[in-house]
């Protein structure tokens, strides 16, 4: 095959590789088996054609042997070397260029946080989550009387969940001032502006079992909590639960998962 044909094919290969890499990254969550098979077939065809191009199409040309230079033949040797075609002196680099394109094309694409969240939550589209110990640094209602602090490490995951899930946040508080502190902390963190959540979806109760009532009324696909008793009580009614616990705990039910933090469960810690 002529050099110009090889160059054209390499350019086409690069464009296809870049295009498919971009599309696979964006559509990895929506591809069905047929689409995935089509892309795999196209990749196989590219590699197959490249293998054919690498194989020599004919007998290789022998390079003329360089004669020893003697004082009496310096002019002849210089004239001989000037007439040697450049393509015969420097070997072509099409094979190395094609190999680089193939290597780049088959490099694993790192999933985005959004893709990881969707994969972890599966088909879940409604999520309920307590605030203390999950979204907030504080772990007790007494601490909320003094301050409320949003955990920066959990904020990114929280905002990603709000992009495709109907999210409700809930917590037990001791007074109205604690409610205001929590809402202000969430607002300052950008939850109500960057995330798809409104203040009406932040629910407060005065007793611990109040969260159980909220969750059963909302009927979410996922509930996230730190209280093992509430997790146990809801396991019969909720499709999936995530138990946030500082220590590794035994799995109480097949639909209950556990993690030391929200961000660790989604692989961002």
Folded structure, characterized:
The protein contains 12 helices and 6 strands. It has helices at residues 3-27, 33-54, 74-82, 86-89, 94-105, 113-121, 141-144, 152-164, 176-188, 210-218, 228-234, 262-265; strands at 126-130, 166-172, 202-205, 222-225, 240-244, 256-259. It is α/β, with parallel strands linked by helices. It starts with a helix and ends with a helix. The model is unreliable at 67-89 (pLDDT under 50). It has a 6-stranded parallel sheet, sandwiched between helices.
Structure summarized in a few sentences:
This protein has 269 residues and is α/β, with parallel strands linked by helices.
Could you give the topology of this structure?
Blueprint: H1 3-27, H2 33-54, H3 74-82, H4 86-89, H5 94-105, H6 113-121, E1 126-130, H7 141-144, H8 152-164, E2 166-172, H9 176-188, E3 202-205, H10 210-218, E4 222-225, H11 228-234, E5 240-244, E6 256-259, H12 262-265
Report the sheet-strand fraction: 5-15%
Low-confidence stretches: 67-89
Quick one: overall form?
elongated
Structural class: alpha/beta
Would you list the SSEs in sequence order as H and E?
HHHHHHEHHEHEHEHEEH
Distance between the termini: 52 Å
pLDDT averaged residue by residue? 78
Number of strands: 6
Strand order of the largest sheet: 3-2-1-4-5-6
Radius of gyration (CA) equals 32 Å
Largest sheet: 6 strands, parallel
